[in-house]
Amino acid sequence: MTLPNMHDADPIPQAARAEIDRLMQTGDLFRYTAADAAPVSLLEAEFAQLMGSKYALAVSSCSAALFLSLKALGLPRDARVLIPGFTFAAVPSAVIHADCLPVLCEVGTDYRVDLKDFAAKLPSVKAVIISHMRGHTSDMDAVMALCDDAGIPVIEDAAHSLGTTWHGRNIGTIGKVGCFSFQSYKMINAGEGGILITDDADLVARAIIMSGAYEHNWKKHPVLQDAFATWQNKLPLYNLRLSNLSAAVIRPQLPHLQTRVQNGRRNHDYLAARIQQSPHIQVPLPLNGEERAPDSIQFNLIGMDDTQVYGFIAEAAKTGVKVQVFGLSEDNARAFWNWQFIKDLPKLPQTKRMLMRACDVRLPVRLPTTELDSVSDALLKALDTALAAPHDAPLAYGT
Q1: CATH 3.40.640.10 is held by the domain 15-255
Q2: At CA 40, angle to CA 37 and CA 43, rounded to 5?
C-alpha cells in the first residue's frame, strides 16, 4: 500500500514565477510604493470581483482580517462577541486583541453552532463571529434571521470556506464582513496572508486605515474617498499589510479555484463513502443548500472508548495517515479548554463530548482515486486493529 504525503502543500502555478522575478529584481515589495496597479491592489480587485463583493482588503492573515473587522465595527471596550466553541484559537485571540470579550456557544456533532444555545446567548453580545470551521457551514438563514432581528453584525470566519456556497451565495458575502485565509493548507496557498470582503464603504475605509494606510495611502484604494476623509488621523495604525510578493503568489491561483473546489468535493465525498462502510465512523452530511469546498475530512468515531480511539490514532500513524482527534491531541488549539487566556472559560459539555471523538484528516485536492483508496483502506484497517486489540495491551499513543 503506497500512501501519499498528506501534508505537502499544493504547488504554486508557474505563472507566478515571472511576476516574482520582476519584483525581486525591482525590490518593489511594499504595496503602497506604486501609484497604482500594485500586485496587492490588483489582488483586492480580482478577489472582490470573484466573490461578488464591492470591496476587499488584503492583510497579513485571516486573524488580522478578523481583528480589523471587529475594530472597524467600532465596538466599545469589553463588548461581548459570540463565537462557536469549536474554532481555532486565533478567533478568540482576535476578539481579545480587539479589546472585546469572547462568549462561546455550544456546537453539535455536525460541527455547526447549536442554534438553541446561540439564540440564548445572543441578547448579551454586540457582535457575532461565525466560524465555518473546517468548511462546515452553520445554518446561515437561521443565524442571520436571529442576528438581523437583534441588530447584531455578523462577521464570517471563512478561513476554511473559500469556494463554499450557501443556497448559491458565496460564503463570506452573507454577513457584514467575510474573512479568508491564504495560509499554506488552505485552497489558495501563500504561506501566510488573509483578506476581508464587505459591501460597507465606511467599514472598509476604517479597516484600510487601521491596516496601515498611513498619511494618504488610502487614496490608492478604490473606495468612496469621503469615507476615508472622516477618519484621517483619528484611528490607530496596526500595520497588518500584505506584501506585493505574497499577492504575486496568490493571484495566479485564483483562476484555479473552481477546479480545486470541485476536486476537493469529489475527493471528500469519495473517501467519506468508503470509510462509512464501518459502523464506527460517521461523516456529517452537508446542510440543505450547502455546497462545500473541502480540503480535509472530519468524521466522528462511534461506540469507542478512549483506549480504542488512541489505538486507532496510533495504528493510522503507522501507515502514514495522521489522524487528529481534536479533544485528545495534546494542547490542540481547536480544543476550547486550551484557550486559558479567556477569563471564566465555560464548560460547554456538548462541544467537549463532540471534540473527544471528532477526527480530522488532511485531504489534498490533488489526490487521485487510487491514493484515496489507499488512505481509506489504511483508516479502516487501523480501526479494525484498534477495535480488536485487548484493552490491557500497551499502545503508542499519538497526537
Answers
A1: yes
A2: 90
Does pTM surpass 0.90? yes
Q: Rounded to the nearest 5 degrees, what angle is found at the Cα of 168, between the Cα atoms of 43 and 147?
A: 90
Tens digit of pLDDT for each residue in 81-124?
A: 999 999 999 999 999 999 999 999 999 999 999 999 999 999 99
Q: Where in the chain are all domains bearing CATH 3.90.1150.10?
A: 257-388
Query: pLDDT value at position 333?
Result: 97
Query: Domain 257-388, what fold?
Result: Aspartate Aminotransferase, domain 1 (3.90.1150)
Residues of the chain with CATH 3.40.640.10: 15-255
Adjacency order of strands within the sheet including 324-325: 281-282, 296-301, 358-362, 324-325
pLDDT for the residue 9: 79
Assigned C-alpha cell, 119: 439564540
pLDDT recorded at residue 395: 44
Which residues are paired to 241 by β-bridges?
A: 59
As a whole number, mean pLDDT of residues 173-199 equals 96
Confidence tier at 353 by pLDDT (50, 70, 90): very high
